[in-house]
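Saturday, quiet lab. Running sequence design on the structure tokens for the scaffold JK sent over.
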């Protein structure tokens, strides 16, 4: 399933950007776009621009003319967005719009990455048409971003997701959190009242690659086909790595002050994506198993941390 297309990936030194670059390697021509100068053997070519700067985005796109733009660049931390709401808006909303403007001007297909955090988690199993209600500045600015993208470029595909896997720092995802902690014998909390349908980052990259050929536009939920609690995710990781699951203490996340027993369920319904793809999306356990198998190969490509096949040591 190789492609002759050229993909430009923003956020190319980030968690999803690098995973997408690894997946696309050998399947398409790839350009990694970063904010600061950065080179890695993952991408065929490298460029730099800040997505807040429309003229830089425009001039880069018009000189390189990628066929597909995968926009993973974002201020992706809830905490950093809470502390810097203006910057979060500039990057996640205005930056996203800038990428859509520039992609539209050169006729490139835009795949824009959004999040399950556009929902408040009161219900779960959210469909694309369900009402949004973000609980954080991050979610609000990402929602503004997806609205700006679709208003600017209606042919864009906005993918709401949540993912886990191997990240450049070795510390970015819930998978790494549990592998790191349990390998080192550290007791951790596993939340019983927090559900997501996170997808393994390589499986997400594969779905994005397939979706680019389908030319679907609008909102699409691309996550694992099941929803599990963070506690059950941790136990599944412990079982796959043969680590001590008793180190995971059943706990309740405090989502709203004084209402710690409330459940937050950010799971997304994937019926539409599975119908489009013509196949089932993997479960979280299948993603965890694949992540374990991929570790030896991905270690040298993505991780900057010192790791072994049994565990990940933090930077
Ligand atoms: N991680 C998750 O589970 C998750 C869940 C749902 C949705 N998402 C979405 O998935 C996408 C990728 O997230 P991620 O986890 O890969 O985040 P990440 O590791 O923080 O990567 C984000 C990238 O964006 C770049 N960036 C930030 N501001 C920029 C700007 N102004 N101009 C150009 N590039 C900029 C960062 O570059 P620097 O390194 O130079 O700052 C970084 O490489 C985001 O849209 C995020 O909202 C993530």
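Result came back. Writing it out in full:
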């Amino acid at each position: 399933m190789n492609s002759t297309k050229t993909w430009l990936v923003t956020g190319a030194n980030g968690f999803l950007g690098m995973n997408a670059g690894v997946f696309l390697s050998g399947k398409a021509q790839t350009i990694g776009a970063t904010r600061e100068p950065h080179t890695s053997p993952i991408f065929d070519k490298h460029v730099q621009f800040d997505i807040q700067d429309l003229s830089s985005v425009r001039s880069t796109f018009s000189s390189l003319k990628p066929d597909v733009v995968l926009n993973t660049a974002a201020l992706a931390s809830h905490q950093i967005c809470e502390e810097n709401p203006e910057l979060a808006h500039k990057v996640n909303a205005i930056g996203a719009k800038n990428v859509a403007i520039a992609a539209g001007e050169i006729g490139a297909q835009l795949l824009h990455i959004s999040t399950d955090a556009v929902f408040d988690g009161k219900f779960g199993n959210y469909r694309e048409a369900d009402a949004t209600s973000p609980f954080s500045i991050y979610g609000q600015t990402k929602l503004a971003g997806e609205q700006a993208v679709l208003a600017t470029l209606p042919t864009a595909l906005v993918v709401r997701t949540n993912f886990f896997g191997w990240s450049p720092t070795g510390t970015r995802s819930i998978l790494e959190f549990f592998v790191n902690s349990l390998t080192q014998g550290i007791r951790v909390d596993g939340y019983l009242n927090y559900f997501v349908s996170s997808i393994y980052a390589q499986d997400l990259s594969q779905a994005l690659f397939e979706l680019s050929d389908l030319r679907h536009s609008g909102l699409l939920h691309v996550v694992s086909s099941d929803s599990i609690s963070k506690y059950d995710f941790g136990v599944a990781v412990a079982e796959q790595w043969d680590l001590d699951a008793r180190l995971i203490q059943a706990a309740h996340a405090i989502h709203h002050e004084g209402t710690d027993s409330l459940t937050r369920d950010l799971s997304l319904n994937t019926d539409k994506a599975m119908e489009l793809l013509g196949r089932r999306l993997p479960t979280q356990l299948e993603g965890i198993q694949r992540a374990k198998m991929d570790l030896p190969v991905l270690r040298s490509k993505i991780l900057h941390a010192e790791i072994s096949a049994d565990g990940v040591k933090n930077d």
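Notes for JK: The mean pLDDT is 93. The CA atoms of residues 84 and 137 lie 9 Å apart. Ask whether to fix the surface positions before the next round.
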